[in-house]
Design a protein that fits this description.
The structure is a homodimer of 242-residue chains. Chain A is an alpha+beta fold and 242 residues long. Chain A folds into two domains: 13-76, Winged helix-like DNA-binding domain superfamily/Winged helix DNA-binding domain (Arc Repressor Mutant, subunit A, Orthogonal Bundle), CATH 1.10.10; 81-237, Chorismate lyase, CATH 3.40.1410. Chain A has seven helices and ten strands. Chain A has helices at 13-26, 39-45, 50-62, 91-97, 116-122, 168-176, 196-200, and strands at residues 66-69, 73-76, 81-83, 102-113, 129-139, 142-152, 182-191, 207-216, 222-231, 235-241. In chain A, the strands form three sheets. Chain A has a six-stranded antiparallel beta sheet. A two-stranded antiparallel ribbon of chain A has the order 1-2. In chain A, strands 3-10 form a two-stranded parallel ribbon. In chain A, β8 (207-216) and β9 (222-231) form a beta hairpin. The longest helix of chain A has 14 residues, at 13-26. β7 (182-191) of chain A pairs antiparallel with β10 (235-241) of chain B, so a sheet runs across the interface. Chains A, B: InterPro entries: Bact_HTH_transcr_reg (IPR050679), Chorismate_lyase_/UTRA_dom_sf (IPR028978), Tscrpt_reg_HTH_GntR (IPR000524), UTRA (IPR011663), WH-like_DNA-bd_sf (IPR036388), WH_DNA-bd_sf (IPR036390). Chains A, B: GO terms for molecular function: DNA binding; DNA-binding transcription factor activity. Chains A, B: This is Transcriptional regulator, GntR family. Chains A, B: Residues 11-79 form the HTH gntR-type domain.
Chain lengths: 242, 242
């Protein structure tokens, strides 16, 4: 957790309280998913007010070091899932390779059609047929992302009848003989609103990471456009060059 | 600006006000860097209260669509700078290639040494000599990032005497015959605190994107570790695969 400024030992009191808690996390005194002391206890042990303790907690939350769980208090965030956009693995494979447990729930499967926005993303014509798949994915039992996937219905006849609580890429490979070889990926920070925030169990306005992925087959034919809304503290994007 | 959920036409009033303003931005009725109407006018024209208008503005800010400028009101965010971590260009080259104007200010140059944290990042031994360079970079006159660069003093003798208000990579190439061929890059959302927030002219807690880059030369020798703090609405990470 390196984003702390290691050169600055001064500053407002709430940042000193934050540094103190961050140190305890870095040193392993507070383990992932363990509960933090109450605001009252934190205020007392840091010799400050509850208002200041709350500011420190809000800062740590915004940095992704702690998270709040429904009225049960504050918890230490588990390590971020590492995601390398240049590598070719599914969500499930990636999660398992990091010794963690993935889960996928299908929330909705609906026929839809290409809007102006999707036409600009996919190269299809407005009005073309799509199947829209909405899923929620978990790591170690915690929802980390909700996604809207737009599938090319003409390229994937009968796709809406499959079970989607599994790897979509495997399904495309096994049932349609498809390899998604060309991908355009875009990522930037955003704020989650409903229905995404609701699906992830957080309040509207919570920080998130927005990821889109447009995938084509061997012939450059559009297959799927995936729009993912991640909780901001769950993902670390890592790339190696050279 | 695609993160809006195109399937949801219902929801709380502030989100409808947000959609209305977002539509005006997408349709070009509100141009980048132009000023939004006042909260009072927005409330009246949307037939709602100023409290609701303010919620809509906060949401648009969190999504990176608008930004606040010191007591002068709300403005439409300019397009995000596109950054492809797999490509090999400097900040300045990248900004200019997108038809925009870069600027770099050196804030500080100080000798320092490798801490435990930097040892884990660089592979150097604790206590080894570094030069720490702190810079602020702008796009079209707006500060977008502040960075701490740790340079390998042994590999770069005399580095502290150069002018850093320019491309560091070009300097390394021209004066040390160095090409940075191996890079490890990591990126995740965070919240900006001081001294970063202050250097960028935003309040502590503002959303940011944290980027680190560890660069080595042809022989795998550590050259520089760069830690960048970007305003959350200024960057879009884009990668093409295949």
């Amino acid at each position: 957790m390196p984003e702390r400024d290691h050169s600055a030992a001064i500053g407002p009191i709430y940042l000193r309280v934050r540094d103190h808690i961050a140190d305890q996390i870095e040193q392993g005194l507070l383990q992932p998913n363990s509960r933090l002391p109450s605001e009252r206890v934190l205020a007392e042990s840091n010799n400050t007010t509850r208002v200041t303790a709350r500011l420190a907690l809000a800062q740590l939350e915004a940095e992704g070091r702690i998270y709040r769980s429904n009225r049960r208090g504050w918890f230490v965030s588990p390590p971020r899932l590492v995601y390398n956009p240049t590598e070719d693995y599914s969500f499930s494979e990636n999660v398992m390779a990091q010794g963690r447990t993935p889960a996928t729930e299908t929330l909705e499967v609906t026929p839809t059609e290409v809007t102006a926005w999707l036409a600009s993303k996919t190269g299809l014509a407005e009005g073309d047929s799509l199947v829209r798949l909405r899923r929620r994915r978990q790591v170690d039992g915690r929802p980390v992302l909700v996604e809207n996937i737009y599938l090319n219905a003409r390229r994937l006849p009968g796709i809406e009848r499959f079970d989607f609580n599994r790897s979509l890429w495997k399904l495309l490979r096994e049932h349609y003989g498809l390899e998604l070889v060309r991908k355009q990926i875009e990522m930037f920070p955003t704020a989650l609103i409903d229905p995404q925030a609701e699906a992830l169990g957080v309040t509207a306005g919570t920080a998130g990471l927005y990821v889109t992925r447009c995938s084509r087959d061997q012939d450059g034919c559009f297959v799927e456009f995936d729009e993912e809304f991640w909780l901001h503290d769950t993902l670390s994007i890592q790339v190696e060059v050279g």
